[in-house]
Amino acid sequence: MGATMLHVGGASPYDVVVGHDLLDRLPGVLGDQPERVALIHAATLGELAHRARSQLGAYDVHLLPVPDGEAAKTAPVAADCWESLGRLGFTRSDAVVALGGGATTDLGGFVAATWLRGVRVVHVPTSLLAMVDAAVGGKTGIDTGSGKNLVGSFHEPAGVLCDLTLLDTLPRDELVAGLGEVIKCGFIADPVILDLVERTDPDTITADSDVLRELVERAIQVKIDVVVDDLKESGRREILNYGHTMAHAIERASDYQVRHGEAVAIGSVFVAELARQAGVLDDATADRHRTLFARVGLPIRWYGASFEELRHAMAVDKKARGSRLRFVVLSGVGAPQVLADPSEDMLRAAYRVMTGSES
Hints:
Zn(2+) binds at residues 181, 244, 260. This protein is α/β, with parallel strands linked by helices. 43% of the residues lie in helices and 18% in strands.
């Protein structure tokens, strides 16, 4: 099967390409304007970075390794990248390639967005999570001690290459974690995703499987359909944060030992119960959250922090408004809405379900 082109319209249109063995497409996405290319990559992906570099013979390519995972998304790491671009004489017509998981594409996009107020960036995500979430949509950012992604910018890429071959060596638990964001997309917008997961043996969802490719393409299309009309999250794009208010609190409380996709699964269980407590969501759909996330091997409970600790962390989430908490909830599959300022009793009841102490 050839590559699939998913087009992102809007003021700065670009394509997300899904398929196998796509590294040779890098020059076509970068174009002939850049002279220099900074290839920002997770340090653990040195061999892959050199393979990508070999496809970029027409450019003056500089490899910029950064820490793996969330450790890359800090102000000192971003500053080191800026200093490197300055030493190398990067101009506004030059470009960045971000090669790695979601943390690397978040960082690489942020560096590109802020260098000379914005240079071209191409994302080559190497994890399932990055393919269906971080690399698409133009969100970039770094973390602070107060929370995740609190410093950032919107900066759309020139293109995204989702090379499914790169998932061949991805550890199984990382692939499963990425399914957290995929299933989330099913709940907020595409019930076919949920049906696929329900009728597929989870062990057959592998990097080279047709079902994973369909899940990836469907999840990306959900994100495209939302962000094309709301790049800067002033309206409907907020629905993509389903489960994320609690997820980000869990990530912070666990010092990022809980993977993002795992935290999204747990956070989605929390918010489904919150919607049930508010009388918005029916029992069957609320219960379906636990069944589906657990089916693929994702956690559906977490008790690593107190209610008070998580409540405080949620208060500094980007979706909060003043002292009021806001949650994206469902009134049914594909029917998201915002629940503002739920009662403390509802929050505690949902927390008890999330921790498995509801009885």
